[in-house]
Amino acid sequence: MLERLIEEAPLFFNYHNLVFIGQAMARTLGMTVIGCSVGFVLGLSIAIIRQSASRVLLPLRIVVIIYVEFFRRIPFLVVLFIVLFVIEPMMPGTSLFGIATVSVCLLSTAFLSEIMRAGLESVPKAQIEAALALNFNALQTLTMVVLPQSWRVILPPAAAFVVMFIKDTSLASQLGVIELTFAGKMLVNRGFSPVLGFGAILVCYFALSYPLSRFAAYLEKRLATS
Amino acid sequence: MRHLEITDISSSYGDQQVLRGVSLGADKGEVVSLIGPSGSGKSTLLRVLVGLTPPTAGEVFVAGERVDYSSNAALKALRNHMSIVFQQYNLFQNMNVLDNVTVSPVKVRKESRAGAEERARVLLEKVGMQDKEKAYPEELSGGQQQRVAIARALATKPEILLLDEVTSALDPERVNEVLDTIRSLTNEGITMVIVSHEMSFVREVSTRVAMMDEGRIVETGTPEQIFTSPTEERTRDFVSKILAHR
Known about the structure:
The complex is a heterodimer. By secondary structure, chain A is mainly α. Helices cover 82% and strands 0% of the residues of chain A. Chain A has one domain: Orthogonal Bundle (MetI-like fold). Chain A has helices at residues 2-12, 15-51, 58-71, 76-90, 96-121, 125-133, 138-168, 180-189, 194-225. Chain B has a domain at 91-157. In chain B, the strands form two sheets. Chain B has a six-stranded mixed sheet, with helices on both faces. Chain B has a four-stranded antiparallel sheet with strand order 2-1-4-5, with helices on one face. The interface between A and B is medium-sized, with 15 and 22 residues.
């Protein structure tokens, strides 16, 4: 077994395979980064809309609540197929990577909005009343009082979510997106040992998620003491 | 014309009526204190005045002008003249002392930062907190936070200052430092409405005292009248119980 691996290793780690794995890693990272960045922005918007008491926003509030509750309760794989079968007929020729990224956006928006809502709600009402009494407008209250105080509640679970989602993007392989998991499968299909093929993929996943979890742990520690 | 005129104000939390037709007035520079048992509506009255709790009936006039509590623009105009200091200080936890005091002048009133900081330092010196301008609220004692909160309220140059049980959350040995600070403000022409359980303090600084019970004003008078010869049974009862505890 070990002999076979040693024999195979130089063949496996050739230039072509390394570029192939590198590209797959970039796709995994791309889906996560684009998806979660969009999720951050849209999730924050949803959290703010849900917190507002404005009557004008009531219909919008109902829509976003339905959206959040719906997408938090369906598996990522199902979201992928829904998006595929909705987008494909509407915009033929959309890349599978694009479809997978849109799916990540949809799901991460729903989950991150809940994390951010919890963060916004963690700020005591008295802080907001103090801002009101000092004549802050809604935007000033949000940017100068509420957000700066909610980061310490938002960041640790948000980072944990992103780390988790790096792994969940592997489901996009079911769609045929050549991300890390799919790349591993292809390498094994080409005849390489599964230990090498999936071993390399495992190392890549670890390399992506470990620094992020360390960063999250660092943030958690720093925010807790400040 | 009185500086602050409250006529027949009522207010409810849900279906519980907290204020049942309160009328009270204050001339410019007067210090009016509200006393009475917990739950009598004293703090609610202050919250209504500054627009944090909506009134269900009645009217408030500031310098002869009726305040429209349903209009955001009117509330903004009102709060340009009126500040409140809360029982729990409510300093912004994410800002240091100096930023807490300057944030409203700079960001809301659009004053120059240099001017606002200069004024903030004068105010911090007045409340004895000039050495702590870089400290964050959580590094300060309750009494220190409350003194900063008073400086923050004064930074907006209020003509009317509302003080809501500002010493109730403090350790006993911290009470006097805050009371001293307030005492030093009473001669500056600011109209003050004070809710307090510190009876000797109320007696000393107030020009008038109003006794509240169950959402109504039971009796109004000079501190002398209220504390030595109240006409209402309820006031007599309350005052004697409070003074007996001292």
